Structure formats: C-alpha cells, structure tokens
Amino acid sequence: MIKSSLGVLLSLALSVAILPNMAVAKTATEKPAKTSKKSVSKKVAAKRVSKKVSSKKASQKNKKVAAKSKSRSYAQRSQKPGFQRVSFSSRTSAVPAPATAGDMAGLNLTRDPLELSSNAVLIMDQNTSEVLLDKNSQVALPMASITKLMTSLVVLEANQNMDEILQVTEEDIDTVKRTHSRLAIGSQLSRANMLHIALMSSENRAANALGRHYPGGLPAFIAAMNAKARALGMHSTRYVDPTGLSSGNVSSARDLAKLVVAAYQHPIIRYYSTNSNYAVEPGRHVLHYRNSNNLVSNPDWEIGLQKTGYISEAGRCLVMQATIDGRQVVMVFLDSKGKHSRLADAARVRRWLEGSKPSVMARPIVAQQG
To answer: CATH classification of 103-361, choosing from 3.40.710.10, 3.40.190.10, 2.60.40.10, 3.40.50.720?
Structure first.
C-alpha cells in the first residue's frame, strides 16, 4: 500500500517535470513554422509586385518598339520611288474642272501655235476687220455674262431715262444657278447705276431689273436683244435672259467680235465696263463694287472695253477691245479653264502681237485629234 502510494507520487512528479519541457518544445517547434508562413507570404507579395512592375516596363518597352517600328515603316514607305505626301490643298486643287459645252463638242482637241487654253478664240483688227487668229470662232457656245454687253446696248438704244429709280424685287432672284447678290430685295438704284454695276461687276439682279423695266417687260426686252443680234449679223447668237445665267444664251466668238465693235461706239459702255471700282447706295448701306477683270487696273494695258463671264457650261469667258502696239484689237476668248486662264491667254496674244507679224496667223486653225 505504501509502495503503491509512493509509485503514484513519483509518477505525478515526473509528469509535472516533463509537462513544461514538452510545452517549451512544442512552442519551439510551432514558432518557426509560424514565422516561415509569414515570410512566404511576404515573398509571394514581393514577387507579385515585381512581376507587375516588370509587366508594366515590358508594356512600355513594347509601345516604344511599336512606335519605332511604325516610324521606320513610314520612313521606308516615303523613300519608295513615286511616293509623295499630298496636302489637303493639293488634293482639292487637283480636282478637274467640270466639262464645258466646248469640251463635250470636242473643241478641247484643237491645237493652236500660242497654246491658248480657251477652246474658242478670235483676234481681229478693229479698223480693218482682218482676222489675226481664229480658233473655233464659228462654233456657238454658252457665253455667260458676256450677255450683259447686249443688255447694255439694248438699254442705251431704247433712250430710257437713266436717272429713273429702279427697284429690285423677288423676280430678280436667280432661280437658275442660285447665285448670291449683294442687292437685297427692295434695293433702289438709278438705271445708270444698275447698268454700271451690271457691266463692271456682273451684278445679275441689276441686269435683270434693267430688263424688267424695259417697255413690255422681260419678254419684250429679250425679243429686242435677239432683234439687235440679227441686225448686227450675229447669226449664231440667241438670248433667253438679260443676265447670261442660263446656258441657253449662246454665241460664237465671231459674233461676239461684232458685238464688241458695236458696243464700243457707246462711251458709257466703254467707261462703265473699264471702271476699276464704284460705290452705290441702294438702301441704308453703301456697297463698294470692283471690276471683275483685273487687267483694267494694270497700267501696262490700254483697254477700251471689256466684259467677263462664267458659268460651268461656258467656262471662263472674256471679250476685250485693247490698243496693242498702236493697233486697236478685238479679242474674244470663250470656254477657258481656270480662274486666270483667260487673262493668261490675253497676255500670250499681246506678246505675240508685239513681237511677230500677225498676218502669218490670219487663217483658220484646223483641229488636230489628240
């Protein structure tokens, strides 16, 4: 009994002594495991951050490489023969002009020694009627605002009061080409001022108002225009309105030369058509007009009469009476391309007249098929 009690006591004492050591051992083995887990977690996080940074750097690098590649590719393309950068303005200027009536008739295939861009031309000595240059001069073509020369001729020969005040109405609005006019509905000007800006600046509403205020109105005025054309021997000419906005107004270069000679007899037409600028007051505001032909302001030119014209069917047109090298010359250019081509044609003819014998070209130029 005493032995068993002593055994129990010894057993308890041994367990008490062993337990703390076991706890310490357990703690020692668990603590390193816990620390290792945190370390792994931090390492994983660090790797992720590193991977993210590396990925970002790689992306930026790829972008730079792509940009370089694109730049290199563009440079290589630009070095290829035939490649050319074209600006916006160059593309718009390269758009071809619409085909005119002369183009559709094949007149653009005609070649002349002066290489004029106008499809129909007549250069004539005003005093002798000698034809110095003839290019498709007998073909009837739309004449655009050259029409206004006949409009002015009919107005003046009707002996109407030039001081009478005419009013612009809705009847004068352009319904053919939808062109703009600075003369508002209700504008009032004298017949003289209407004629002035119609001849000098091709003011369409002014020209139409002149026709409407003719005795019998527009129908009678147009009939008078055609009657005057017949009287002048303009057999290829027809008028349908006083402005020239309709392509139904047609004439030949040969006929228009006759019109220029007839219109030149009127000092008012000579003065109005060659005036460089003019101001009118049709209402509350003063309107300043400029001549549609820049040559009238050029001191190198001696122009006695002129008129310009343009609609898409007619191309650029110009008629002039000018004194060149002491000789009075009538010049007609129809169906030209480009804003300044008709003026360039006039300059070429002038240089030719000043530097050669015009009689050499006093014969029709035969079309050569291109």
So the answer is: 3.40.710.10
pTM for the model: 0.72
Active site residue 202: yes
Q: Give residue 102's Cα distance to chain centre.
A: 21
Catalytic residue among 117, 118, 152, 202: 202
Residue 236 annotated to the active site: no
The stretch 27-53 carries a mean pLDDT of: 48
Summarised one tens digit per residue, pLDDT across range 302-346 is: 999 999 999 999 999 999 999 999 999 999 999 998 889 999 999
Our answer to whether residue 336 is catalytic in this structure is: no
The residue to which tokens 């000007």 are assigned: 189
Q: Where are the beta strands (DSSP E) in the chain?
A: 120-125, 131-135, 141-142, 165-167, 188-190, 250-251, 277-280, 287-290, 303-311, 315-324, 327-336
CA distances, 1 to each of 5, 9, 15, 177, 198 (Å) = 6, 12, 21, 139, 151
- Catalytic residue, chosen from 135, 148, 307, 337, is 148
Q: Are 166 and 332 in contact (CB under 8 A)?
A: no
